[in-house]
């Protein structure tokens, strides 16, 4: 009887934590980014949530921009090396 009670409590806790984690994930994924289609959802968020989302967007934009600039620099180096070879010959 005691084993059955322990087993039932363990199952209950397992299910509870799974549901809790699922709800937490849903809460964090309300809006990924701002656009025309989700304007009203954006405005219904609290000030802190809007701030955190804009901060995430800013960080992702910065990372994308940094990667793009690195690609441009690499291509420029390749092009400038090719140009020097043509002028030298």
Tag the structure with descriptive keywords.
89 residues; mainly alpha; 3 helices
Describe the structure.
- Helix content is 84%, strand content 0%.
- The protein has helices spanning 2-28, 39-44, 47-88.
Number of strands: 0
Query: What's the number of helices?
Result: 3
Shape: elongated
Q: Sheet with the most strands?
A: none
Give the integer mean of the pLDDT values.
80
Helix content: over 70%
Distance between the termini: 91 Å
Radius of gyration: 26 Å
Structural class: mainly alpha
Low-pLDDT runs: none
Order of helices and strands: HHH
Question: Beta fraction of the residues?
Answer: under 5%
How would you summarize the topology of this molecule?
Layout: H1 2-28, H2 39-44, H3 47-88
Could you write a compact summary of the structure shown?
With 89 residues, this protein is an all-alpha fold.
């Amino acid at each position: 009887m005691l084993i059955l009670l322990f087993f039932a409590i363990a199952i209950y806790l397992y299910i509870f934590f799974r549901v809790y984690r699922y709800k937490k994930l849903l809460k964090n994924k309300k809006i990924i980014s701002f656009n025309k289609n989700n304007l009203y959802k954006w405005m219904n968020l609290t000030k802190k949530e809007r701030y955190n989302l804009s901060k995430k967007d800013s960080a992702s934009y910065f990372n994308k921009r940094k990667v793009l600039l690195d690609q441009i620099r690499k291509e420029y180096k390749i092009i400038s090396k090719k140009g020097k070879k043509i002028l030298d010959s």
